[in-house]
């Protein structure tokens, strides 16, 4: 039996990709293989504050909520109003805080929520197609918002983001997930 949420998510994602291809970067949501690879990088026992940039229809959001502890918080930043409405409706979880706004405000938003920094930041937003100043601000604010033992997990379709990551993070481990459309590169960045 098919899941009605999955059908709605696919249509919503495709419609928004056609309207805003540079904001989404992909015609379809992330594969379960990519999501699993990202989830395996997180220490779930220690993660208390997780941030996600560009959750879209919530493919990764739902998996984070399934695995995170009852006292953890997930803060997601989404620019697209259709996706914001969908996330609030599809995931009525008290641990989830949906921000209709830019990831450049991550530090300020965590402070406003009285959260002591992020343990993990997960991002699939297309860094290489955004304006340079915005990319720099997001990178700088992400590092500032990250707890000392935290990590930023970035997934992209090319290595083009690597120089930007290197200018803000000392340690970057790389991985690759071929079972995604398009195959994805993963960057695990720590201070």
Describe this structure in words.
This protein is α/β, with parallel strands linked by helices. The protein has one domain (4-190): Vaccinia Virus protein VP39 (Rossmann fold, 3-Layer(aba) Sandwich), CATH 3.40.50.150. 38% of the residues lie in helices and 25% in strands. The chain has helices at 4-19, 21-24, 32-39, 59-67, 81-90, 106-112, 132-145, 162-166; strands at 49-53, 73-78, 96-100, 118-123, 146-156, 171-177, 184-190. A seven-stranded mixed β-sheet has the order 3-2-1-4-5-7-6, sandwiched between helices. Helix 1 packs antiparallel against helix 5 (81-90). The protein is globular. The model is unreliable at 17-24 (pLDDT under 50).
Biggest sheet overview? 7 strands, mixed
CATH top level assignment: Alpha Beta
β content, as a range? 15-25%
The domain count comes to 1
- Principal-axes shape call: globular
Return Rg in Å: 15 Å
Low-confidence stretches: 17-24
User: What's the average pLDDT?
Assistant: 90
Helix content: 25-40%
- Oligomer state of the chains in this structure: single chain
Number of strands: 7
Give the ordered list of helices and strands: HHHEHEHEHEHEHEE
CATH architecture: 3-Layer(aba) Sandwich
- Which class of secondary structure composition applies to the elements? alpha/beta
CATH topology: Rossmann fold
Termini Cα gap: 45 Å
Q: What topology, given as strand order, has the largest sheet?
A: 3-2-1-4-5-7-6
**What is the count of helical runs?**
8
CATH superfamily: Vaccinia Virus protein VP39
Topology, pairings included?
Blueprint: H1 4-19, H2 21-24, H3 32-39, E1 49-53, H4 59-67, E2 73-78, H5 81-90, E3 96-100, H6 106-112, E4 118-123, H7 132-145, E5 146-156, H8 162-166, E6 171-177, E7 184-190
Parallel strand pairs: 1-2, 1-4, 2-3, 4-5
Antiparallel strand pairs: 5-7, 6-7
């Amino acid at each position: 039996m098919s899941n009605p949420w999955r059908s709605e998510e696919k249509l919503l994602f495709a419609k928004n990709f056609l309207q805003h291809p540079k904001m989404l970067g992909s015609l379809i949501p992330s594969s379960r293989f990519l999501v699993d690879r990202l989830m395996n990088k997180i220490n779930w026992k220690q993660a208390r504050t997780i941030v996600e940039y560009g959750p879209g229809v919530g493919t990764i959001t739902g998996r984070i909520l399934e695995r995170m502890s009852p006292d953890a918080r997930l803060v997601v930043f989404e620019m697209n109003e259709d996706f914001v409405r969908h996330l609030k409706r599809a995931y009525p979880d008290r641990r989830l805080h949906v921000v209709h706004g830019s990831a450049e405000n991550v530090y300020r938003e965590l402070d406003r929520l009285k959260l002591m920094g992020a343990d993990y930041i997960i991002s699939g937003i297309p860094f290489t197609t955004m304006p340079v100043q915005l990319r720099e601000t997001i990178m700088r604010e992400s590092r500032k918002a990250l707890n000392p033992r935290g990590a930023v997990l970035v997934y992209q379709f090319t290595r083009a983001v690597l120089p930007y990551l290197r200018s803000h993070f000392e340690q970057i481990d790389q991985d690759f997930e071929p079972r995604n459309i398009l195959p994805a590169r993963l960057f695990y960045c720590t201070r």
